Amino acid sequence: MKLGKRQNEKLLLILLCLPILFSCGAEKKQDNDLTRENLKGKIKEMTIYVFNVRESFGELEKGNLMWKNKCKYDEDGNKTEERYYKDGKLIWKEKYKDGNKTETNYYNKDGELKEKQKNKYDKVGNKTETNYYNKDGELEEVEKWKHKYKYDVFNNNWILKTSSDNTITEREIEYYK
Q1: I need a labelling partner for 104 at 20 to 30 A (CA). Which of 4, 15, 118, 148 fits?
Q2: Which pLDDT value is given to residue 152?
Q3: Bridge partners of 100?
């Protein structure tokens, strides 16, 4: 089958547009805990060992293991849990949801729960409340924070945050013209 000049031009145009069409549907690199930590691949769990450093004959070398940290990630690359171990025993555990630390459990040297903290956050991701529980699960203290914001006129990003913990946070944002 022989194509005419006009059909050849249409076919060429379609072939030239195909890569553009497929690139529009390409998945954008997702911002998650793995990308923020500059880790690549679909990581399920990562173990980190922290050693002290000692000097031997003028050279620094790895000393004793100080603690071990195990991080768990969901399939979307977000950290869901961290566990800290010392001398082979769990000393504390942190749980995360939506990038925020929602719960921290502290353990004694025998691995028994000593204290628990639960955090709440506002829609911007600022911690607004921490509830402290004893080993029996009884609420012992509630700490609350309030935040006031001042926003820029260009994009409605906050540029000044005053918090009830007597801190002020300023952000300078430069935009493309």
Answers
A1: 148
A2: 87
A3: 97
